[in-house]
Design brief:
Elements: H1 5-16, E1 22-23, H2 24-27, H3 37-46, E2 51-54, E3 63-66
Antiparallel strand pairs: 1-3, 2-3
Helix pairs in contact: 1-3
Length: 71
């Protein structure tokens, strides 16, 4: 299945993090997912990608990581 350009960009950021956490703001900027970056993240989950969500200490936003990031 071919992903839209923006979904593919969000997925690439998560894959490039190699299992590390990526802050929500990093997925919602113009260069990656645009203002709808988190919606694209939810759409990737709906397509079967296992994406974890956590609120890290001293951050006022959620962070995400792709399980099995080498897919």
């Amino acid at each position: 299945m071919k992903l839209s350009r923006r979904k593919a960009q969000v997925l690439k950021v998560l894959q490039n993090a190699e299992g590390d956490w990526v802050g929500g703001p990093a997925l919602c900027n113009q260069a990656v997912g645009g203002s709808e970056g988190l919606r694209r993240l939810r759409e990737l989950r709906a397509l079967g990608y296992n994406i974890e969500k956590i609120k890290l200490p001293k951050q006022n936003y959620f962070s995400y990581r792709l399980e099995g990031w080498n897919v």
